[in-house]
Amino acid sequence: MILTLKPFITGLKYMDKIGSNTGWLVIFDRDTEKCWDEKIYMKTENINGKTITVAGC
Prior knowledge:
Blueprint: H1 6-18, E1 22-27, H2 36-39, E2 41-47, E3 50-56
Parallel strand pairs: 1-3
Antiparallel strand pairs: 2-3
């Protein structure tokens, strides 16, 4: 799975605006060809001193 930076940048800007160092990014995979085991994941990214938990479903 490849994640682009655009959702992270948007999230980081919002986190700066509200003064938060942690946040969540939920990605909905609408590909009907994939089974649920391929779609569901969770990982943590640290970017510019901020922690973002990414949940895929």
